[in-house]
Amino acid sequence: MNTVEEHKQEKHPLDVIDDVYEYAEENLSFEEIEDRAGGGEWERLKWAGMYAQKQEGYFMIRTKVPGGYLTPDQAEVIGDVTDDLAVAPEEYGGDEQNELWGDAYLDITTRQDIQKHWIRVEDVPEMWDRYDEVGLTTVQGCGDSARNVLGCPAAGLDDHECFNAQPVIEAVSDFFTENREYANLPRKFKMTITGCAHDCAQSQINDIGLVPAKKEIDGTHLYGFHARVGGGLSDGPRMGSELDVFVKPEDAVEFCRAVAQTFKELGDRHNRGVCRMRYLVEQLGPEKFEEAIRDRCTVDLPDAGRNLTVGYQGDHVGVHDQKQDGLKYVGFNVVAGRMGGDEFAAAARAARKYGTEDASVRLATDQNFLITHVPEENVDDLLAEPFAREYSPDPGPFSRGAVGCTGSEFCNYAIIETKKRTKRWARELDERIDVPDDIEAIRMHMSGCSASCAQPQIADIGFRGETVKLEEDGESDIVEGMDFGLGGSLGADNEFLDWVQNAVPADSVIPALEQLFEAYAEDRDGSEKFYQWCRRTNNDRLRTIMNGADAPVARGVAHGD
Q1: Cα–Cα dist 237/202, whole Å
Q2: Nearest Cα to 533, choosing from 543, 522, 524, 541?
Q3: Which of 459, 464, 319 is nearest to 393 (CA)?
Q4: In terms of DSSP H, where are the helices of 27-60?
Q5: How many Å apart are CA 437 and CA 492, to the nearest integer?
Q6: CA distance 73 to 63
Q7: Count helices and strands in the chain by DSSP H and E runs
Q8: What is the b/e burial string over 74-92, where b = at least 16 CB atoms within 10 angstroms of the residue's CB?
Q9: Residue among 480, 488, 435 at smallest CA distance from 462
Q10: CA distance 260 to 252
Q11: What interhelical angle do 252-266 and 286-296 show, nearest 10?
């Protein structure tokens, strides 16, 4: 077994939750925690939703939000806890440590979670107590277990929905959360479940993707799910494989359990680099993997019916009609997913003030959020709120499509800073580049390393961090930079992007994009989208276009090469 597996054998990872209360009561330092529990405790703490920050003594804590659905009360508690407990200390700059967001902010993630930084272990029990009051949890927000279950953030709202899958999401999440039998898997286990025909919950890049389908059984037409398995990004990206199964909504928990059982029994626990379920699906093949699931499933799995997915949307920014008469939902644009805790609490209070009793705050996989069930006559007042002006539902196309991971500010793996850079670049690009009027969003995703937390492989424009060595006039300089990819998307024409140019200095990226969009405007065929043009255009030509910029786009190499 690899080292992580040894740590999980020493003590069941869920037992770490009791340990956290002890560490908090005794106000232990990082060194004292390790002296007491060993180096494996940092791995086990992930089951409590806790990652040790690179700044010793502080944690990032991840809150799970199944399907992205929050009541106003839950959202307000998240914002208030952020403002009270997730505060940068003076020794790390205090309210000046981050000039864009101050000292108490949260991140909406691509998995519809909430992440908070600067949490001290002694404050975790207070956070958990406040969470318990409104039904929130951080348990298994991280670690080798079932992560947050994704869903359409507009579940129950849109006409293009075949059925509302949010109750199924919650049932699956409830089954796996704190379930000791399935809390120690070979690697993280990611699920998405949607009844939406537009697949904004990204079924193609998850371990399990359940999407809407219809089938006649015993003379009755039933709605249910088709299943995709073995999708994922990072190193070795893979689109999910379709299984020949029809899953009834009431059988979804058992189906997901059977997949987890298959992964638990057959998954690799030796080489950490190939422990993800997608490698097992690739190794066995989809047909053999399906057989293994059927062998372990206690309910009947009919053959597939009629697929009801018609495309990929992934964006709910703007003011939209709900299928309930007279109601709207509003999608707010949070560039790179980061906003102040006080701002998120203000959004929660606005949902309560301007919405009906069914109002909610929904987190989206593009790091934005929605406020739902707003009577049409209240929309203008909602949009006049201070937070709504900052997180406009009518952004420019680069701001609308910008996604950024945590970056080197807090992450031990990231090579470059991402959050501030993503926000600044998106707004600068909206000012400098004229995008065709019919293009609402340019999906620009920035990951600080190769781990793909910002999902660069499925973006129009994807970046992954590098340090770049530049040679100028016989002198060397090491700068932040990135690999530069073009042409990714999900949906009917799903395809991972091509990494067109490696080791591009960060200061050269915007000039290179200006050149690309100038060429796109000239060459565009009808209503062709940017990613489609990138695919149609030879990579050598794309590189030539980029190198036309007055910047050293291709004059660096990855540091260490």
Answers
A1: 14
A2: 524
A3: 319
A4: 30-37, 41-44
A5: 23
A6: 15
A7: 18, 21
A8: bbbbbbbbbbebbbbeeee
A9: 488
A10: 12
A11: 110
What would the two tokens of residue 41 be?
A: 């405790």
- 136-179, pLDDT tens digit by residue? 999 999 999 999 999 999 999 998 899 999 999 999 999 999 99
Chain centroid to Cα 479, Å, comes to 28
Helix 16-26 / helix 30-37 crossing angle, nearest 10 deg: 130
Q: Which two tokens stand for residue 272?
A: 């950490």
Whether pTM exceeds 0.90: yes
Mean pLDDT on 58-62: 98
Q: Coil, strand or helix: which one is 102?
A: coil
Give the DSSP letter of residue 326. Answer: T
Q: Are 316 and 331 in contact (CB under 8 A)?
A: yes
Which helix (H) or strand (E) segment is 475 a member of?
Answer: strand 475-486
Q: Tell me which residue of 252, 233, 54, 263 sits closest to 146, measured CA to CA.
A: 263
CA torsion angle 353 357 363 366 (round to 10): -80
Residues in contact with 179: Cβ distance below 8 Å, sequence separation at least 6, in sequence order: none
Kind and range of the H or E run holding 28? none
Q: Is 231 left (phi over 0), alpha (psi -120 to 50) or beta?
A: beta
Q: How confident is the model at residue 561 (pLDDT cuts 50, 70, 90)?
A: low
Q: How far apart are CA 435 and CA 444, in angstroms?
A: 14
Token code pair at residue 96 = 């000046």
Q: Is the pLDDT assigned to residue 391 strictly greater than 70?
A: yes
- Reported as a single tens digit per residue, the pLDDT across 495-537 is 999 999 999 999 999 999 999 999 999 999 999 999 999 999 9
Can you tell me the distance from the alpha carbon of 195 to that of 205, in angstroms, rounded to the nearest whole number? 17
pLDDT tens, residue by residue, 98-134:
899 999 999 999 999 999 999 999 999 999 999 999 9
> What does the alpha-carbon distance between residue 526 and residue 519 come to, in Å, rounded to a whole number?
14
Structure confidence at residue 474 (pLDDT): 74
Pairwise CA distance, residues 83 & 74, whole Å: 14
Q: Which amino acid is at 134?
A: V
Length of the chain: 561
The answer to whether 488 touches 496, Cβ cutoff 8 Å, is yes
For residue 61, pLDDT over 90 is answered with yes
CA nearest 484: which of 425, 408, 412, 420? 425
Strand 327-332 to strand 59-63: parallel, antiparallel, or no bridges (unpaired)?
unpaired
